[in-house]
Amino acid sequence: MNDFDNRDYDEREKNNRCRDREQNKCENCIADILKVILILQQSVNQIDSCLDTCDRGFLGQQCCGVCYNTRPITLYTCGTTGIPLSMPISKLPTEETTSSVFRLEKLDDCCATFRVLVVNSDNTYTPTNSFFTINLDCLCIIRCLDDTYIECI
Q1: What's phi and psi for 63, nearest 5 deg?
Q2: For residue 125, which of 11, 26, 31, 117 is within the disulfide window of CB 3.0 to 4.6 Å?
Q3: How far is C-alpha 82 from the geometric centre of its chain's CA atoms?
Q4: Is 135 within 8 Å of 108 (Cβ atoms)?
């Protein structure tokens, strides 16, 4: 293929992606994984459901005494040579502390909204009120961490 053919191919690929977006399709393996994570997080019984009451939303004993409501993840953008994406833990413009651990909050076609999580010294997480939205086409790697329970989510 010569340079002209490469440009022509790139343009056709770009047009295909745009056409897919117009049809509300996001063909991206990371988007597929995030859909599963969001479904899992949304289907979690809230902590009240973990009580051993008659109206709990499951039959039998729980396999463990912990209810999980979050699958923390680390994201890597294309071209960052293995450096995870990190975002400020606060909305304050002067905030310099960042975190590279996030919780998926919303998925909309090829865009995802994440909440920044603070990693505590005991390897638990604290949710922040810092959110960001990213185009999933910009992501190349997603790393899932151990499922956990986060209060106030």
Answers
A1: -70, -20
A2: 117
A3: 18
A4: no
Q: What length does the chain have? A: 153
pLDDT band (50, 70, 90) for residue 130 = very high
What 3 state SS string does 67-100 have? CCCECCEEEEECCCCCCCCCEECCCCCCCCCEEC
Distances (CA, A) of 99 to 41, 104, 127: 21, 14, 11
User: 3-class secondary structure for the chain?
Assistant: CCHHHHHHHHHHHHHHHHHHHHCCCCCCHHHHHHHHHHHHHHCCCCHHHHCCCCCCCCCCCCCCCCCCCECCEEEEECCCCCCCCCEECCCCCCCCCEECEEEEEEEECCEEEEEEEEECCCCCEEEEEEEEEEEHHHEEEEEECCCECCCCC
For residue range 61-87, list pLDDT tens digits in order.
Answer: 555 556 789 999 999 998 877 899 999
User: Is the separation of the CB atoms in 94 and 109 below 8 Å?
Assistant: no
pLDDT at 10: 44
